[in-house]
Structure formats: structure tokens, C-alpha cells
Amino acid sequence: MPNEYILEMKNISKRFPGVQALNNVTLKARPGSVHALVGENGAGKSTLMKCLFGIYFYDSGEIIFEGENCLFKKPEEAIAKGISMIQQEQNPIPYRTVMENIWLGRYPMKKYMGIPVIDDGRMYDSTKALFDDLGINIDPKAMAAALSVSQLQMIEIAKAVSYNAKVIVMDEPTSSLTENEVGQLFRIINELKSNGVAIIYISHRLEEIFEIADEVTIMRDGNYIGEWPIDEITLDMVISKMVGRELTKRFPPKHNVPGDVILKAENLTSINPKSFKDVSFELRHGEILGVGGLVGAQRTELMESVFGLRHIVRGHVYINGKEIAIKNPIEAKMHKLALLTEDRRDTGIFPVLSVSDNMLIASWNKYKKRGNVIDGKNSLSDVGKGIKALDIKTPSHKTLMQYLSGGNQQKVIFERWLLTDSEILILDEPTRGIDVGAKYEIYSIIADLAGKGKSIIMISSEMPELIGMSDRIMVMCEGRISGFVNGEGADEEIIMRYATQYA
Amino acid sequence: MDNAVKNENAFSIKSFASKYAIYLVLIVLFIGMGLVDRNFFSLSNVKNILIIAAVRIIIALGEGNILITHGVDLSAGRLVGLTACIAASMLQRPDYAYKMFETLPQLPLVVPILLAVCVGLLFGLFNGCTISYLKLPPFIATLGTMVIAYGFASIYTDAQPIGGLRDDFTRLASGSVLTIPNLVIIALIASLIIWFILNKTSFGKYIYAIGGNPNAAMVSGVNINRTTISVYALAGALYGLAGALLAARSGGATNNYGLSYELDAIAACTIGGVSQSGGIGTVQGIITGVLIFEVMNNGLVILGVSAYWQQVIKGIIIIGAVAFDIRKYIAKR
């Protein structure tokens, strides 16, 4: 019965504070077929899958699995019913064996003098059989920590198969695989297909989808755009449906005038062979340089290397024509660089410290009176000015950072780097996790800084933001620069094409 | 705005409770003990509590700074023991029969005390370097130092007690200025200095920052290694001071001095509101935590509770206090 759906997600809606993450999204999967789910970063693909597995609870809609209405409250329930998932990022237990990782929580047991113990022999045999079936050549007794990322990915796939799942969700399964391994994965997928398994395949690599998928569902901004059989749609159509939204007035006017080159990078190559390679670019005085690309394009890695958080094996960085070597953030600060990181919680804020301590942490050297003694009056007056200038909503400068909204936390971090008198600001996803309303304020700050002659590099995965804010856009793909586009009136489809160029 | 303000207000009530709870506990404990036994309120008993607490406060200040950086120092107690032995060995009476250094001239008091401080500081530096450069977890690094310090103390003293301390040295601990015991004055000065460092210097700000979020501190260009090493060195110096004062107060020293003082200090800091997750803690809190412990110890002795039951009660209070401390963070998720 090829027309029967095994899994139907109908009209799923999910609202987060300030944003409609999913709006009446529908996804249907047939047994023995590969169903691709595509959309830009932030289109809601992962949210939809989290709703399926009960990690999020959807507000409305229904999920029908094997003809039954289902509401999974946690992933284990979905897995028990026969829906499993391969995560984009693996979290193996590093110093346990491959087989222990695969059968974790459901070890085969045997009785030893009446006491239940783990049956290592049986576990080894079933792992071996599973690997042989899938053509995976990894020792089941190897330590997970000793494996490469792509090997771990293969193990994740084997694990998903081991549940005898009827539906397997694969979230960017090829992002860490080599070409050979991708071929192997596709063989596995075809094998699963012929066994009647339905596969939901999420990928940014659109070419792949045309190779492996039977149908494709396209999402955009949390909306369901439609579902097409793969042979009734072209790559160009998919791209235009993914990005086809009109730009409204969401950005402040810019008055910056790019001047001479302030920062120049030549042939930067990461110490990590899987990261960026031979990257060269220039940043002009007072310019906003957007950096576009898909997740995994190594944009963050590149910019963190410029800032000295990561290391390069070769390449040169020049500031105002002078070659410099930045080995750590302390030196980056001396060269008037600033970095607003992508993950505010992890590398940005000090949640249990006050707003003023958060703001001043990078510039205490400026406020020293004698020795290490700080000038409390001067520093606090600058904090007051900063709170006012950026319109930071906080009851007091003593309020703990954790009680501020994401947008206000981001403004505090902006001010942190303005107090260091930095000239080059690297902004990594500056509006991530920020309410729509507060986004405009962040954009205004960025436009204002550029207008004052600060030079800005802005990594962003949001197309409209890139086009609306940047003077130029540098697009990266797989650790390389695939093209430059002028910001003004840039064509989203061209950017998307560059972003998937080497995929 | 509304949201932020609301959160802040909701927080105030909670924070008021958690901010002042420990002071209330101290006062209630103090009055309670006094009501049960009038002797407790006598000036000499209060002085006695404070004199004993003084050394513990100095140790807890060092340990507290380390806890704020989200580290831990298990070597505190043994370093106190080692430095106590060093100070005592150089301040024995000239006519004492079992002098360690028979030919040692009459040193000015400050020399052995400074030497004890320096030895503590060196061990602290060692802790800081193994943690910063060898990337050892603080628990393991200071566990090693703890064992080393005990070894050195035993070698140094040949496991023999050191007695017959000079009167001018013991008077340092027993004396007082305007009825305020010297030890209390010294502990007070140490507290003021640490308070100043934590609140008025960039070093202090970095201590809170690396405890509050080490990744963000690194991105902000904070020199994490230098700060970490300095914190452990400062703590070591405080243990050295505490060791010398402990020897003076008890009129001698043995290689077993300071046993498990680090655990008492960690417990006192935790009761005093120093967070186990780093980034939170005040000098006032640390002092109060130590005083709660000492009032309890003293009270239980006066009440005639057996030493073994005292241990049981102390343990229960540590678990209770940390359970309370953790609850604040669990609620926030």
C-alpha cells in the first residue's frame, strides 16, 4: 500500500514567547520512502522534529502514527513505538565501547548464579551482525573516544537502525561524513527503504536531496510551503520556495561610508583540517561585512581564529597594513578587536554577576587608579552612560545579568566591547534568540556604530538580516569562501547558491 | 521592561530571605544557646569563641576565594599544620630542653611568621600552576599538595611535637588591645583586606568572573591563568598566617595540626552563601559561616553534648545548608 502514510504530522503549531515557531505545518511520510524536509536555518525544521519526539509540546495539530493518534511526552516513548532519530551532533559516552554506546539502557542480560549481569558476548554478536548488515567496518569493542566524527555518525545510524524503527529521522546526517561515507549512508538508506522504513531526511545539501529523496516538504519562517514529489520540482524551484519572502522595512537606515581597508586576512587555514582553508578577505573602515552560509560553513571558527580563540596553521592577518599575530583574546583586545559570540549563555554573559560587572569585565585596565585598585566612580558613571545610550532595560546596574531579557543582555555585551574602545567588532549571530522587537534595536546599534566609523563583521544565518544590514556579504561554504555579494539589493537565491556551492 | 522589573521584584523577596537567613541563623543560634545556659553569654566565653574563630576565618577567607573561582583547595588544613610547625620550630624558648634548632638565635617574631606565610604562598603558587598549566582538576591538584604538605610536616618535625614556645609569641595570641583579642584584630584586618581585594580591585572582579563563567571571561580577555595562580597563592599565604597564629594560640605544634580544617572551611563558606557553582560569595558571608560553626561547637560543648554527637550534628548541618544552597539554583531552571 504505497499510498498509506505511516506518519502524519498535521497542522502543527508551536509558539514561543515573541515568535511563532511553527504555523500549521504538515509533514507526511510513507513507508519505504525518503521524505526530505528542507528550509533555511531557523525555518522550524528542528522545532518540528522536537515536537514529534516530545521534547517540545506543540500548541495545536495532531500526530498520527500507524493510523493512531499519538502524543509523545518524551523521546523514549517515540523510540519505543518505532520512531528514532539521528542527531546532527553526537553525544557518545567517550570512554565506553562502541557496543555499550549502541545498547545503552537496553543491554542484553544473562543470569550468573541467579544474579542478572550484562551479557557482553551477546552484545558483541548483535553489534557485529548489525554492523555487517550495514557494511560498517568498526570494532564493536573500540572506545568511542578513539573514533572520528564520521565514524561516530555511522554508529549513530546503526543505533537508530538497531531499534527496528519504522521511521528514522536523519538531521543533517552527512554534515560530518566524507564523500565515500555519504555513498555508504545512501546504500544503507536504500536498504532501509526496501525494508519498508520511512526516512525523514533533513539536509542543507540540496543536491543530495535530489539524489536520495522521493518527496520534499519545504518550510519557511515556521510556515508550511508545500510538499512535492521530487521529480516534479527542480533545484531552482526548491531554492526560490525556501527563500521566497518579501523584505519588509525591518532595518534602520544606514549612513556609514566604507573607507580604507582596516583588516585584511590572507590564506587563513585552520589548525583543524576539517575547518576553514585558504580564506582571504578584507574589511573596510566603517563597513558592515556580512558573513553568510549554512550551519557548518565554519564561519564562527574562522572569526574566532581571527580573535585568537582558535588557531591557524598558516595565513596572515593585517590591521591597518601592519601584520599582526593574535594568539589569544588578550592580544585581540590590544589590537582593538571585539567579539560578540554566538552562544551568549556559554561564552557571553556572567549570569550571577551584576549588569555593571558584566559590562566592565573587558575594560578594567582602563579604570585602574593605583596598582589593581579600580576607579569605582568613573567606571560606574560610564556604565550609567552605556545603559542610557543603548537603552538597556534594567532596574539597576546592580541587577544580576540573568534577570535581563536576551536583547538587553546582548546590549550589555555590546557596551562591554564599546568600553574597550574597540574598532573592529565581530558579531556572531548578534540577534540569535532575541525577540523581533529587540532585533530592530540591535540593528540600530550596529548601523549607528558603523556610522561612527567602527568596522563590523556580522555573521548571520538569517538572509534578510544579512541583506538588510550588510554593505557586502561574504558567503562561505564548507570552510571556503564561495563568493562575495553586494549587500544592497542582494539576491537571496544567489547567496543560497553560493552557500551550497561545494556541497 | 515590565518583565525585567517583575523578575527583579520577585527575586528581592527571595534574595532577602537567602541574603539575611544566615545572619538570622547566627543570631538565633547565639541567643538560643544563651537561653539554655547563662554561661554562654559571659564575656570570657564570647571572647573564647572569637579567638578560636579568628584562625578559622583566616583559613576560610583563602578557601572562600578559591571556591568563588569554582575551584577547591584540599591542602588548606595540611598547609596550616606545616606552617604551624615551621613557625613554632623557630620560636622555642632558649632554655627549652627539646629545642629543634639548638643554635638558633632569638629571632624577631615577624621573621618566622613571615616565613610561614611565604611557605604557604609557595605551596599555593604550586597549586595554582598545576591547575593552570598542567590543567589538573583543582580537587586532584590540591589533594596531592595536601599529602605532600603532611609529608613535609612529618619529615620536618620527625613526627615529634614542638613545645616550649616563647612567651612573646604565645602572648601574640592571648593578648588583647583595649579588651579586643589580638587574634580577632588580625582576623578583622585580614577580612578587610580580602573584602577590599574582592570589591575594589580588578583582581577581585576577575575572581568572580572566572567563577561566574570561565568561557565568557576568556573571550573578554581576562588572564585566567594569572588570576587562578594568584588566588591559590593568596590563599596559601593566608594558611601560612593562620598556621603561625594557631601555633601561638596553642603554645605548640605537631605534624597533625590542621587535620580536616579545609573541610570545615568549605562547609563554613557554603553555609555562608559561597556558591558551589562559583561566582557567588562575600566576606561577610564567610565570616558568618565560620561563626555559626564556632558558636555551635562551643554551645554543644557547654551543653555537654558528647564529642561524637557533635560530629553527627555538624554533618547534618552541612548537608542541610548545602541542600538549601542548591535549591536556589534548581528553582531557576
As residue ranges, the low-confidence spans of chain B are 1-10
Class from helix and strand fractions of chain B: mainly alpha
Q: Tell me, rounded to a whole number, the average pLDDT of chain B.
A: 87
Main beta sheet strand tally, sense and closure of chain B: 2 strands, antiparallel
Helical content of chain A (DSSP H or I, runs of 4+): 25-40%
Strand element count of chain B: 2
Q: How many individual helices of chain B?
A: 13
Helix content of chain B: over 70%
Distance between the termini of chain A: 35 Å
Structural class of chain A: alpha/beta
What radius of gyration of chain B results from the CA coordinates? 21 Å
Could you spell the SSE succession of chain B in H and E letters?
HHHHHHEEHHHHHHH
List keywords for this structure.
heterodimer; A: alpha/beta; six-stranded mixed beta sheet; 17 helices; 26% strand; B: mainly alpha; two-stranded antiparallel ribbon; 13 helices; 1% strand; globular
Overview of the structural elements:
The complex is a heterodimer of chains A (503) and B (333). By secondary structure, chain A is α/β, with parallel strands linked by helices. Chain A has helices at residues 45-52, 75-81, 98-102, 120-134, 149-162, 179-194, 206-212, 235-243, 299-306, 329-334, 344-347, 355-360, 376-389, 406-419, 436-451, 463-469, 492-499; strands spanning 7-16, 19-29, 34-38, 60-65, 68-70, 83-86, 109-112, 115-118, 167-171, 198-202, 215-220, 223-229, 261-270, 279-284, 288-292, 312-319, 322-324, 337-340, 424-428, 455-459, 472-477, 480-486. The longest helix of chain A has 16 residues, at 179-194. Chain B is an all-alpha fold and 333 residues long. In chain B, helix 3 packs antiparallel against helix 4, helix 4 runs antiparallel to helix 5 (138-157) and helix 8 (202-212) crosses helix 10. The longest helix of chain B has 35 residues, at 2-36. Residues 1-10 of chain B have low confidence and may be disordered.
